[in-house]
């Protein structure tokens, strides 16, 4: 595991703060939580599903969350058209699947880079700004909506990570 993953700092979201700081605080809390969930996991066990018949695994969750950071902030909101994202429209499991050569350390770095890019995008925009891209129905999203969605997405997968990690080696945590 990378040095950065071993020094994860997870701060509680602020109890009293402006909206932007509160939203960023909750999202960063959940971003750090997924990294804590995979900290110290055996690489090969982290790639195997620990709750069959589901194929979901811890390492794949990190990849999925990285792809979602890129998709929502860089692609949908900022319209940057990032290259190399898995084609989840034609293969719904593509962004969860750990491909040969992908490692936990590499996917943690990918996730951290995606989160940093997201933070820069959020810092440069208003919460009321609309996305460059639209949803399937043609509706644009506010940055506020995207941040809230990513809080929900990341928190939900943290719950999955709890169960997967416990199934691997009994490690539990908040």
Structure report:
It is a single chain. The chain is mainly alpha-helical and 174 residues long. It has a single domain (3-169), classed as Four Helix Bundle (Hemerythrin (Met), subunit A) (Up-down Bundle). It is 55% helix and 5% strand. The protein is built from six helices and two strands. The protein has helices at residues 3-6, 19-38, 43-47, 58-77, 104-123, 143-169, and strands spanning 130-134, 140-142. Strands 1-2 form a two-stranded antiparallel ribbon. The radius of gyration is 16 Å and the shape is globular. Mean pLDDT is 94; it is low at 1-5.
| Number of structurally distinct domains | 1
Provide the β-strand percentage band. Answer: under 5%
* Overall spatial form: globular
The average pLDDT is 94
Give the oligomeric state of the chains in this entry, treating copies of one chain as homo and distinct chains as hetero: single chain
Number of helices: 6
The CATH superfamily is dinb family like domain
- In CATH, what is the class? Mainly Alpha
From the alpha carbons, calculate the radius of gyration and give it in angstroms.
Answer: 16 Å
Strands ordered across the widest β-sheet: 1-2
């Amino acid at each position: 595991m990378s040095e950065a993953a071993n020094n994860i700092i997870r701060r509680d979201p602020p109890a009293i703060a402006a909206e932007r700081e509160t939203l960023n605080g909750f999202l960063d809390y959940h971003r750090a939580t997924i990294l804590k969930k995979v900290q110290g996991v055996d690489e090969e066990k982290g790639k195997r599903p620990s709750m069959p018949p589901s194929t979901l695994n811890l390492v794949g969750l990190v990849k999925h969350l990285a792809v979602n950071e890129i998709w929502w902030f860089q692609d949908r909101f900022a319209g940057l058209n990032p290259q190399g994202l898995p084609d989840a429209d034609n293969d719904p499991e593509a962004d969860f699947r750990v491909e040969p050569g992908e490692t936990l350390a590499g996917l943690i770095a990918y996730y951290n880079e995606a989160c940093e890019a997201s933070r820069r995008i959020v810092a440069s925009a208003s919460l009321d700004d609309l996305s460059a891209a639209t949803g399937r129905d043609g509706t644009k999203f506010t940055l506020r909506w995207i941040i809230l969605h990513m809080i929900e997405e990341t928190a939900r997968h943290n719950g999955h990570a709890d169960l997967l990690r416990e199934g691997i080696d009994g490690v539990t945590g908040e």
